[in-house]
Amino acid sequence: MSDQNQKIWTKDFILIVIVNFFIFTAFQMTLPTLPLFVQEIGASDRWIGIVVGIFTFSALLIRPSAGKLLDTKGRAPVFLTGLALFVVSMFSLAASFTILMLLMVRIIQGVGWGLSSTSAGTIATDLVPRKRRGEGLGYYGLSGNIALAFGPALGLFLVNHISFTMLFSICGLLGLTAIILAANIKYDKPEKVADTRKKKESYPHFDIVERRALAPASLLFFITVTFGGIATFLPVYTYEKGFDSTYIQFYFVIYAAFLMLSRILAGRLYDRHGITIVFIPGSLSIIAAMILLGFLPTPIFLFVAAALYGFGFGCVQPALQAWAVNRVENNRRGMANATFFSAFDLGVGLGAISYGFVAEAFGYSTIYFSSAVSVTLALILFLFIMRRYRKEEMESAKIS
């Protein structure tokens, strides 16, 4: 796409936003309900973490291949295959009533999610002008945020009135709708996406990461560790605290509302002023949210933490993604997105699995105090990276 054309809301961009909305809604409806499903079939907190984590790690393992296929075979086959696997796995969840079956289905679901989410992010990147990429990816991310606004709450509401089998079947139907819409998107042809023969000597055969996306991906990793702790254990934690079941639904609504607000503002700020102006306040906001969740004496703390976490995550995630893809050539966008989202998966997966053991040994509150430490490490790493970049820029200016 030419930078002269600054239009964001094209037909294809609208379609990818809607498709992303449907697959994220299906995903978000299962996010807080799967831990409850694991408890219903008689498994412990440790298994809750493993069920969430194995999904994340299967997505993580497939992402490098997804990135390479996106850059060589084109967007459409990878995206549609991922959506198909995701839909099949959703319907299969409805028939999974043992831990072994559930783990197998979650592996397949992770592969489908890894392929489809990497593809969707890359397709959105293709469709947004470079000079408005922070803003455009912020708008694209709103589709997932709107799903966050009611997806978890809807899932928790439905599971109190219908069976888990019915819930997972509804999620499968949402995925089918996404496939139908995705089939109507006009994708870049493979030869326009990448010419791997010309670039063969530039990239090694064992090509699993985009090196220039590693800095933003590393920062994202330390931040999404917190997401693993929230998505997996916060519903159970609030129930243990004796909070009404509706409070966790309000949490996700408040979180999504502030996430949407900050995404719009942060994307524009990133495009005009760079990463620092959004990353530092966003990180500090997440740290504050984790500390509040660690104490959590009243529901008010839960709601304030939701607002702080939504604001913070909405600042850092789209800015880091735009930073990652802006550093690479057009024919490496797929691999850059794969590297970026692999870090997301790794953070969520390690958070979910490790915090399962932490919860059993030290209690749920320790999860969130540990998460505050993780984001603090991300902030320190960011300051170190930016200092190194400024030093390199000064040396380059002296040479020129």
Automatic annotation (TrEMBL):
Membrane topology according to the record? Multi-pass membrane protein
Q: Which Gene3D superfamilies match?
A: MFS general substrate transporter like domains
- Please state where this protein is localized: Cell membrane
Q: Which residues cross the membrane?
A: 12-31, 47-66, 78-101, 107-125, 137-158, 164-183, 213-236, 248-266, 273-294, 300-323, 335-355, 367-386
The UniProt entry lists the main location of this chain as membrane
**Xref: PROSITE patterns:** MFS
Q: Which UniProt keywords apply?
A: Membrane, Transmembrane, Transmembrane helix, Transport
Signal peptide range: none
The Major facilitator superfamily (MFS) profile domain is annotated at 12-390
Q: Which InterPro entries match?
A: MFS (IPR011701), MFS_dom (IPR020846), MFS_Exporter (IPR052714), MFS_trans_sf (IPR036259)
Q: What Pfam family is a match for this entry?
A: MFS_1
Recorded protein name is MFS transporter
Upper lineage is: Bacteria, Bacillati, Bacillota, Bacilli, Bacillales
